[in-house]
Amino acid sequence: MSLFALRLLPLWLLLVGLACPVQAQNASTDSLRRLLARAPSDTSRVLLLLKLGYTYRASQPDSTMHLAQQAWQLAQQVGFDKGRGRAQSMIGAALREQGELPKAFANQLIALNISQRSKDLEGEANSHNALGNISFDLRQYRQAIYHYSQSRALFTRLNMPPWLAGSATNIGSCYEKLGVLDSALLRQQEAEKLITEHPRPRLAAALALRNMGVVQARLGHLAEAMRYYRRALRETYANNDLRNRAMTHYHLAMLYQRLRQPDSSLVHARLAVHAAQKVSFRLTMMEASSLLVRLYQARRNVDSAFYYQALYIAAHDRLFGPEKFKQLQLLSFNEQQRQVRQRETGERQTARYQRAALLIGLVFLLLMALLFWRSSQQQRRANAQLNERNSHIKAQRNDLSKALEELRATQTQLVAAEKWAFVGELSAGIAHELQNPLAFMQNFANVSVALLDPDPKQMSRNRAPGLEQEILVGLRQNLREISQHGQRASAIIADMLVHARTGTSQQELVDLNALVEENLRLAYYGSPVLDGTPAIELHTDFGTDMEMVPVVPSELGRALLNLFANALYAVRCRQQQGETGYQPLVSVSTRRVGTEVEIRVHDNGTGMSEAVAAQVFQPFFTTKPVGEGTGLGLSLSHDIVVKGHRGTLSVESREGAFTEFTVRVPA
After folding, report:
1. Per the record, what are the reactions this protein catalyses (predicted)?
2. Is the peptide bond before 201 cis (omega within 30 degrees of 0)?
3. What gap in Å lies between CA 544 and CA 547, rounded to an integer?
4. What is the CATH number of domain 508-666?
């Protein structure tokens, strides 16, 4: 067929169309006919004619053809390309269902070309779907998948889920014919889900249910297939869909034949032929007639077998006769040539665009080079000015660095002065603390002098046996008290001097586990042992991944010694309370925590209340009796850890249960 004949084909189809009367088939059809009666002869009337024709497609294809031809003529008159393309596609769809595959193919190619030129995505999607149907009828399933996929992509862009369900079930049918059953089942499930989520309009419900039944039958799920077929039949009766009713009856007949129920198979095959004849659906007429021939031959009913054999041959020749096959080949060849020419035109146009883009790019590069040269000249001048400014800034920076060093030195002196000011504030408390031991020393010294130098008259008059011995005993006791309070005064002054120290010692890498163990041993052996009581139990858990840690060993050792001494003192105090079954325990552990090392000192001694724990790091605060502590040990330990090592010292305690100090210093 020549290109000239292809151009005349739409007009020829219009002239030979059947002028059959249009009859209403449902409420939607009646509503559209009432609107059509009042519609003017413009684009809106074209679209109404197409909508009305679509309602007759599955029950009265001749009416569909008649309305589509009217829509085509009106769209041609008013210059409505979108309507003309859609009418051409509907004419092709009606011809396909009548078995006129070459004419249907030609009309769909023309419709696709018109929709693409008018940028009608919905019309383009419909044409691709119709071309897929024709390819499916011709058993060209790969080509059908291509057209269905194009249709599916366009319906997705247009957000039209009911139409998208039709494309999905059609793709699933192609995969079923190709034997790719997993993909077929996946597409049918997708279509079923879309129909469930978007029940109106029910465009593809019967089609999707029937196709799902076919896949289930191929998978061997015969009972499930039967259920889908029966649901499809109910859907066709609800919508007067004779075309899908015919195909569903045919598949039911095939299923009953597989179940070895020839009577049921015969009934459904005859119903399939009857429904297909009403809508001139020759493909199902051919397939159902072929099945009836086999069924009647098995029954030895020659007349019926001969009748349906003739019906099969007529439908087959109408669909796939030699002349039809030649026409399809010619149409396919012409379409391929058109696509080749279109690609060549596109390639030439692309080449022209590329040359123009290259020329524009060269001009742009030339301008950029000129701008870059000018910018480089300005940059050189700016660099010279910048270098001059940098020199000036460098000199200012050197002056600022020198001033900063002087400021830091002054700051260090101010910190030391502030520390001494703090010591001055504490001097009143220190003096108060020193008054008591010094007063005791003075009193005991005066009494001792009086004992050693009594009045001779009083002495001769009151002398009694053993009096000298008593005086000596009292003298010794007074001297011991003087010594103890003097030592306490010395300890207070020594701790005060440590607090007032302004310098910092040099850090060095030490084995932290060894340092902890050494000071724990010194504290333990320096702690007095109570007679008749269990020895204090020591538990140690030193981390194995402890590397050499930078600390001031003498200062950190002093802090740890204070913590260990406090822990031993606490368990001794609880031990003196005579608690039954009490076993004094001091636990010490070390471990690495990120970039720090941690030392925990835990004891099960008397513990502290929250109020006491909040004050333990304050200078001169102590819970020990007078004469047993100065109140500066934990304060000094806190300064060593926090200020001297930039670490943390915290305490957790519960009165009558335990106390735990945690030391963390950078590793």
Report:
1. ATP + protein L-histidine = ADP + protein N-phospho-L-histidine
2. yes
3. 9
4. 3.30.565.10
